[in-house]
Amino acid sequence: MPRRYSYRHKGLIKLFAILGALLGLGVCVWQIAGGAPNLLYLWAGITGRAGEVGFYILYVIGIVICVLTIMMALDSTAIPLHWVLCFVFGILILVFGGGVWALLLLVVAGTIGLVDELS
Asked: Which sequence spans correspond to the domains of the chain?
């Protein structure tokens, strides 16, 4: 059985992880609902979004990653709360359309966990 590390600042890590995941989830849902265009599509020169299956797949994967991040922060037995996972999920949320602010919140959570583990 793997050892589960107990952080001293576990509540703060959970707060930042949940806020980052909820922000990323909100951005992904807003993009699917027709919010502001994605910068990735603007740089690629893609203007029309109706019927683009790749557009929807990108944000659905982002929603799944946000839900996994929330599961990690809520002490799920399937995904343990660890600072490395905060960094990994933050990068994945950024790649799959969750936004930079969600990444920053998860990086803060991961940094708190790293400092807590090293001290």
From this structure: 24-118
